[in-house]
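Supplementary notes (optional reading)

For those who missed the lab, this is the record we used. Protein: Phage major capsid protein, HK97 family. Length: 175 residues.
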Amino acid sequence: MLGDGVNKPTGFLTADTVEEGDWAWEKLGYVATGTDGGFGASEPADALIDLVYALKAGYRQNATWLMNRRTQGAVRKLKDAEGNYLWQPAASPEGRASLMGFPLVEAEDMPDIAADSFSAAFGDFRRGYLIVDRQGVNILRDPYSAKPYVLFYTTKRVGGGIADFDAIKLLKFGE
């Protein structure tokens, strides 16, 4: 999520962002909550609903929420107009929690809710983010460095980055 591409994959939170109304390719669109560091006082769940519908229907059918546990705690307290919680706990021990009918994944690397932070993401991450994993592990034998022992160095090449900027949307806690 936060990788800069130097000795690690590029994270999607390091991409350029733009408000959803001004969306352009090679930029991730976001929906703002309207309040720095939190949800709006009136109708706080509206930003979540706007985020769901900012994603095109083709991506929405496989979409997942992504946020850390502190953000989940704040979202879990949100209710609809009838007083029902938007968050639905898992129905079974093997099940997954859902938010507004979409599965939710806990990712501790996502930032906490703060002013102008992107603390929640929603999208089809299978289509939106590509992980490249080169097959095989390279092994280099070093018989000279630690005589009379032989050292082995192993390396594996992996990478990642945004493949489809239209498949992931962010929730910005700010204006």
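If you only remember one thing from this example: The chain has one domain: 12-129+164-173.
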